[in-house]
């Protein structure tokens, strides 16, 4: 199996709590917060480990929040490669309102990386073994240019790394323009923005995903469709994987769980359909949990088996 590494340029320390209801002005009495690691690539690495694989997470840490983040990952047994930075790691807040069942996510700006700090992150990427999978997930820190990101991806590809990019907007577009990505996972709105036209029906979505593949931006495009699952496309295959109905408690972590599961299958040499079945199962498994918890192996395997049986039926 190929080794999996993840890169998170804007990690976070996530806290989750509940309150009876949310309203302006008054004091909102909350339960004791639960702290968990946050940031796209970090959560992808955690999902890989939860699903029985191995992954190493590369990310910057700063201040007490960064140290707390690293401590939480150490407790989970996640292999980390960190860089201490001047700016403190951000802290995000997730609040569940009991009366409505709604979830409110307060996301802070990422910590800035100096040029010297970014260059040290780049050195860590350059030390990843040839043939490994590198998952770059999450937003760019304030002040980090697209040119720095694309230069990092270009160097990773030159070293023989298979790059999965899970981002959005200009960052995702810049990486697709560079080309040769192993996998991207836009949602339908993000795909519409990438293609530059509205996607009104399933055929439009399929055609747009195939267009990204034909243009050489990515070998595989998996379009997340929410309750409808995901549409997966490569040069030879097009398939939609629909998840089983489940009672959703939270959507936090579903996308990262999906990417982690797909990266694990890709590292094991699975084909596109099997990779996305496992990804949809993991994403659905994450929604069974309240707060910021990711997928579990037991839930993912149960849902994966269901999807496989339903597809054969």
Automatic annotation (TrEMBL):
InterPro entries for the chain: Carboh/pur_kinase_PfkB_CS (IPR002173), PfkB_dom (IPR011611), Ribokinase-like (IPR029056), Tagatose/fructose_Pkinase (IPR017583)
Entry superkingdom: Bacteria
Keyword Disulfide bond: no
CDD domains attached to this UniProt entry: FruK_PfkB_like
Coiled-coil region: none
UniProt KW keywords: ATP-binding, Kinase, Nucleotide-binding, Transferase
Carbohydrate kinase PfkB domain location: 18-296
Family label: Belongs to the carbohydrate kinase PfkB family.
Official protein name in the record: Phosphofructokinase
Organism: Serratia aquatilis
